[in-house]
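Complex record, two chains
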Amino acid sequence: MKRQEVFNAWIEKTSQIDVRENFKDEVMKQIYQYEQKKRETSFNMRWFVDLISAHPLAQAALIAVGTMTGFIRVVFIILVILSKGDING
Amino acid sequence: MKDIDVIHQVLAGEVDSFKLLMERYYRPVIRFTKNMTNDSDICEDIAQDVFLAAYKRLHCFDPHRSNFSTWLFTIARNKTINALKKKSPLSMSQLPQMPDLRNPSHSLSEKEFFDELDSILHTLPTRQKTAFVLAEFEKLPYARIAQIEGVRIGTIKSRISRAKRKLRTALKDLDGDIL
């Protein structure tokens, strides 16, 4: 067998592969799981948005929680700045 | 049906149509990952990751920039290179036994030459190996390999030429015929 033939035979041999039979099914299974998870997440978000928009009390509660969180954050930042001022001065 | 039509179907919510794309490309992708990693165990796992990533990012595919197979091979290339970086290098004991090609009394079988070529392929730098595998095993034109690698065609030609030069050393002592 000549050099070029050996090389070509090697390319031919290396190009042949065995793939497990269920390869495609496994990938599709993962894709279906991904889609399912995506739907569940989007469903949960939709449920939350529907709840908020349908109940004025829920809207008020959300605004109150947001305001409180913002207020606590501002107080915390002021405290941090003041405590740094104490250390420096 | 063209790839782009199948892609539109998948993006419109027909998840099952993705199987058509897989049917067309799973063998080339697995062959590529196999020839790059030389590891039958992990090559199919990498290929699974490639198809899952392709599905998740299908909306990012731009048919004006490349065709689907080029885009898919780009994902396969990136995933394989990442896997190779994580994989620990072979220890000396794990390296395949090479025949002594310089000993004229040693009559070489076809299998020994194949093993020698395999060993040299897997010691090539990743860039040379990627270009060589895409050109010789996947029969991709240089322009598409350049697109996958994000370099100029001249660079690809030079990488392939260097890879072939190294592989030729395995055959240089082959004078005439082998068994």
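Note: Chain A has a mean pLDDT of 86.
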